[in-house]
Design a protein that fits this description.
With about 160 residues, this protein is of the alpha+beta class. Helix content is about 40%, strand content about 30%.
Length: about 160
C-alpha cells in the first residue's frame, strides 16, 4: 500500500511538472507591439507610418517618406485607449496568422506587425489587400490610424 502511495505521489509530481513545462512553452503575452504600414519609397508618396506600443500605453509614432523621417515622439495613451488597442491586437491573433499569398499585386505594400516579449520577437507580414479582407486586422489598422491622427493631427494613408 505504501509503495502504491509513493508511486502515486511520483506520478502526481510528474504530471505537475509536465503541465508546468507546457505552460512555460506556450506563447507569452506580448509586452510590446510594432506596426509598419510599408511603402516608405512607394511611388504614390504617402510614406510609411510606424508605431510602437508597450503594455503601459506608451505610443511612439514616426512617418518615413522616401527616407525623410518625422518622429512625432512618445504619447501616453489613456487606460481606455491602451485596453482597447491591446484587445484588438489580441483579437487579430497575429501569432497564428498565415497569409494566403506569397506575392503582392503590382505596387502593393505589406503591413508588418511585430510582437515582442523579452527576447522573443515574432514578425508577421501581410499584403494590404489581403489584410483588408480580415475583419480583425482591418479593425486593428483602423484603430492604429485613428491613434496616429489623434496624436499627430495628420490623417495617415494606411492604404
Amino acid at each position: 500500500m505504501r509503495a502504491f502511495a509513493f508511486l502515486s505521489s511520483i506520478g502526481l509530481l510528474l504530471i505537475l511538472s509536465l503541465t508546468g513545462c507546457a505552460a512555460q512553452t506556450s506563447p507569452a503575452v506580448p509586452q510590446a507591439f510594432e506596426f509598419s504600414s510599408g511603402g516608405a519609397y512607394h511611388f504614390e508618396g504617402f510614406g510609411e507610418w510606424q508605431i510602437s506600443l508597450d503594455r503601459q500605453g506608451e505610443l511612439n509614432i514616426a512617418h518615413n517618406v522616401r527616407g525623410d523621417v518625422t518622429n512625432y515622439g512618445v504619447f501616453p495613451l489613456s487606460e481606455a485607449e491602451t485596453a482597447h488597442i491591446w484587445a484588438q491586437i489580441e483579437a487579430a491573433d497575429l501569432r497564428n496568422l498565415k497569409p494566403a499569398r506569397e506575392t503582392g499585386l503590382p505596387d502593393e505594400v505589406q503591413y508588418i506587425f511585430v510582437l515582442k516579449d523579452g527576447d522573443t520577437t515574432q514578425e508577421v507580414k501581410v499584403w494590404v489587400g489581403e489584410a483588408q479582407q480580415i475583419p480583425e486586422i482591418a479593425a486593428l489598422v483602423e484603430s492604429i490610424g485613428a491613434l496616429i491622427e489623434k496624436y499627430t493631427q495628420q490623417k495617415p494613408v494606411l492604404r
